[in-house]
Structures are given as C-alpha cells and as structure tokens.
C-alpha cells in the first residue's frame, strides 16, 4: 500500500541548528503519527525539513559521500555527534551534585531541573526495573530508550541519586530535617512529602493574608453629591520628602534633642572619647524615654568601639569602668539595636562643613611672607645650583667622576687627601656629591653656605652643629671660626666669662708674720730661692744647689 502524502512543513518547523535533541524527539513522534516507517522516506523528509545552511552542514559531515549514498541512521548519527555531542560523564555528575534549589524555585521546577541534568549522567537502574519491550523501527532510536540501555550498572540507580540530591539541595531546613529522620526514604516519598509541605505553606500564607479582611468595616456611601475640587498643592513639591502635598502633612520628627560637650560639667569635659560617645547614646535614650520605651529603636553611632560595649547582644566586660557598667544597666531596659555608620555617611551632621562653597576663594598671601621673599639678597641655594657648580669646580669635578667609577682612592695630590680618607663614604644624588647625610659644597657656593649658617649670629658652637648636619668641605670648621672672629656683632655678643677676683691679703702687723716665697731662674744656670717679708719688705735670696 502506498504511503499517504502529508504536509509536514505546516506542523513541524524547520531545524535551525539549536536544541537538536528536542527537535529530533518531536520528529520521531511526527513520523509515528503519519506512519512514516521506511528509512528512505524518513531520510527524504529529514533532509527536506532542513534549510539550505543545515543541508550544507550535512553534506560537509558526510564527505566524501553524498546524502543519497548513506542511510537515515548514518545521517542521524552524524548530526547527533555535531549538534548534540555527549558531554563528559564526570562533568555531568559534577553539575548534578552542585545543583541546589534556587531562591523562589518551586519543588516541581527543582525536580524537573534535576531530571534534566541526570539524562547525561548515565546512572544505573534498579535491579527490579523493567525496560520497554517496544522495538523501534529500523534505523530509529528513542532517546529515552538509549539512556536506559546505555546505563552504567556500576553506578547507583537513578532514583537513589535523585533522592540524595533532592533532599540535600532543599532550601527549607525544617523540611530537610524531617526527610533526614524518615526511614526507608525513597525519591517518590520525599517528592510527595515536599509537595505537600510546600502546599501547606502556601495555604497558610493565604489564610494569614485574608485574615485582615475579616474585620474590615463597611461604610455606607453618602447620598450627597460630592463636588470635586482642585488640590491646592497639586503640582507643588514638598521640600521635606519631595512629594506632591503640603509640607505640613509630611512626616516630621516628634521631638529633637541635642547635647553639646562644651556646655556640660567639668567632669564630662574630661571624659575619654569612648565615654563621650557612650554618653551621647545614654542621653538620647533618657531624653526620648517616653517615645522609645517598650518599642524597638535603633541608635546610629559613628564610633565603632561602642558596638562591642553597649551592643544589646554583647556581654558586659568585667574590666569595664563602673560608669560604663551603669550605662549598660540603664540601656538594658530598652529594646534597642546599635548600628555603626561611618562619619562620612552622616549627611545631617554639620551640614555647613560637609557642603562647602563650590567656588574657591583666592586669598592673598600674608604681607610678612611677601616681604620675606622680596627681601632675599640672593636666590636660594638649590640642588641644581650645587650640581652645576660641582661640575665647574676643578677638584670636585674629578671627585665626582671618581665616585661614579669607584676610583676615589687613586686620586693623586694633597688637595684630594680629605676625599681619599672618605673614599667609601661618598655617593651621588641629583648631580651632587653626598657624604652620609651631608652635601659636599663646591668652592663657588661656600661663601653663600657660610652666610646661611651664620644667619642669626649664633656663635661658633651653634654654627658648627648646624653645618655638621647638612654641609661639608675640607676646612669647614676653620672657616666658621674665621667668620665668627671677623664678625663685629659676634664679637660684641660673645660669651665674656667673669674673671676670677684678685685675692685680698690681710696686711701683717709684725715682721715675719707673712712671707712670699718663690723660685727665680734659671739665671746663668742657677736657680734662686726668693723670700720676701710682707711687713718689712725684707728680701732674702739663696742659691739652690739643685734645680729640684
């Protein structure tokens, strides 16, 4: 009997290259519904339902053969390998084990997602499971039957894997605990129990949601005709909340309270920062007691250490001061929560300092600074000036090159002796020679450096101490001494220690009461002992046999 002709294009859309498994499954049902059983007819209808692009792909996959030289089963196998390759079994298992119930996902959707992931996992079957007895037509293969016959007998059955993943992936912890407590739990039992629990939760929510309408009071409509009026504030914006209503009807604070540390007592002015921040919280609770007692209230502070001391869920530390312990006891009478907010996020605190003027005001420099810069006798001694003079100095130019090459000890001549002694201590920075933390001044800048150190006429000791911290060149100390000694102002203000007073001898009243004894000489090789009587001025001179 000849087969009937059917218009498949009106029932089945052409294959576009995506979701091959779904399209091929629907194609099998269309073949079955229209009694297309011969492989040749199936091949013709399959190639007809392909567009030009998919047909070119089929021809490329079958090279060097053409579509009319291969069977329907070979074409299906080539397309299956190209558009729907079998994923890695290890990867499929990993995706299956990582799948948990998503927020807002129902139990039915979660089970459907698990079954879809299990299709490529090749799980085993139960020992008592029976397979379908229906034999597909020659050259055709049902995807469901392919999965059943290709199961791995060494793996756990599909129902066991679905049960384990389903129970472990549930978001409802109470339901999960109930399922863990069940004995001989199967996937069907777990699924039915979860469906019933989900339905019970939804029904409970509906009952609670409808409860508010039970006591709703109905009012009788007025028989009078209402006259519509234009809202007086229509089109206007409330400056409080940016709404379209009068500012008087906007939500406003019931009471305000402020406590300034500068007006408190002397004891509170000496509080530490932690105590001051804690005092603000206690003051707010005491000031607004009649509004917050018996209600949930939130205190916002910009001092984060308070959260560990005055937090409602924190124990009172044993080492806390008695004052802070009393405050913790006082705050325990309120149902409060303490939150931290950084000071930069407090937009209502000190608005004038948080919102500066957009324009920058250019203020003139103070007259004293301008006078100081205008009165400079010469430009300042900068690193660029020192580097330039170093290259112009005949001695330091050679020292500079020797420091770069590491050959300072090879310099010959008496003028390089001070540099050879410090050969390993020199360095180069910004074109200048550095000795430790002191810069080596060339000869062209030494006079200016001395004048900078000599400013203020501080004296030799202070000038040497200042110079030894920043400057160096051979003979620096000697030049400082010469400069101070030649400065008239320094000489007038130098330290003049008081001389020792001349001893006042008591005049004797009798001869030989007071004697002055001393040695004289040597005179012509002799030493004499001279004794003078203070009363009579008598002089006795005797030669000494020995100088000792």
TrEMBL record:
Q: Which residues form the Reverse transcriptase RNase H-like domain?
A: 266-334
Q: Which GO terms describe its molecular function?
A: endonuclease activity; hydrolase activity; nucleic acid binding; RNA-directed DNA polymerase activity
This chain's source organism reads Amblyomma americanum
User: Could you tell me which residue ranges the Integrase zinc-binding domain spans?
Assistant: 441-495
* PANTHER family with a match to the protein in the record: PROTEIN CBG26694, RIBONUCLEASE H
- What sections of the protein cross the membrane? none
Would the keyword Transmembrane helix turn up in this protein's UniProt record? no
EC id: 2.7.7.49
Keyword annotations for this protein, in alphabetical order, are:
Endonuclease, Hydrolase, Nuclease, Nucleotidyltransferase, RNA-directed DNA polymerase, Transferase
Name of protein = RNA-directed DNA polymerase
Q: Which Pfam families match?
A: Integrase_H2C2, RT_RNaseH
